[in-house]
Task: structure prediction
Amino acid sequence: MPRTSQTDLAVLAVLSVAPMSGYAVREAIRDQLGQFWSESFGQIYPTLASLNSAGLVEKVPGERAGSSLFSLTTAGRERLLELLRAPEVTTPPRNGLMLRVFFGHAIGPEAVAALIEQTRDQALQQLSVFDGITRMMQQETEHAEHRPYWALTVSAGRHSALAAVAWCDESLEALATFPR
Amino acid sequence: MPRTSQTDLAVLAVLSVAPMSGYAVREAIRDQLGQFWSESFGQIYPTLASLNSAGLVEKVPGERAGSSLFSLTTAGRERLLELLRAPEVTTPPRNGLMLRVFFGHAIGPEAVAALIEQTRDQALQQLSVFDGITRMMQQETEHAEHRPYWALTVSAGRHSALAAVAWCDESLEALATFPR
DNA sequence: TCATTCATGTAAGTGGTTACATGATTCA
DNA sequence: TGAATCATGTAACCACTTACATGAATGA
Result:
């Protein structure tokens, strides 16, 4: 029962690295967590407002004229730890590719193969994204304490993409022998 | 823009294998597609009703007194093919484990390791589920034309679970060297 | 000066879950 | 007769996306 939104957790977590604006929170999530998380403005701003009125974040003056950033309060930091330790909220699975492969008989082996080729391409593209992230991380000097953890997530992405490619290759070979 | 629900696709696809009741549709999804798809009653019954009034499925008398099953119409079969060939609706990623690992510095290496151990256990459990499915599939004599496709999905599940285990092992080793 | 980026927000809609209510059928 | 399973549905709620509206600051 996800009584509390996952967005709370993501926003608090991002703000724990550095105070920033709602706009910057979204950019951080897109650029740093994009491979395994996403939030939209329509979710971030209301969340920030509610966190603020709950005393978990506060507005601090920013560098630019009139701008203000959101910063974690002590209570916010505690709440973050609580949420990080809470059991994961698992969303029910919805894998469109697997659904189509499962009922592949209806569209035939060629159509399924086309779908899988596409998946293979995406996985390869992901691999190059992870390579890019790895290179960027090696140059980065800030946030040294976070980097080893970030490397673990990149490694997870790589493992899963490699597994996807292997399955695609295997399946394409198998599909070639299916009756058409 | 997912103008049309994914549930339509899933329900039509299940009914393409055999006519059945809404209750049976849910059981089929849970038992056969459970690893990569899910639907709730609250979604299935309204969907069945709307598919019926759209002329994509029809009620046919069932074996038991007063019971009736849903069967695909010709239009329903066409619609299914259309949906199977349509581009996949991708839901934005939400990986709670990766989010926690990414911000692992906040809870420390031991807590992260505990999370990963848990994930490893789940992956191993999944592997045994897939073994069970494989055994069941070998005995099954019906639906011979579907079986090769079902085997592909099982293989995908196995690949991904094995990759998960490998990543967990690697990460647990790495975490042991993190400063605490 | 004008396009781009930074920035904040809201309204409408949707796809979905959960919990509840109800009742028939089967079988021990 | 009574428990378990089969069966159908609905009402309330929720997290989230999309699209829209608005405007300040920056820099070519």
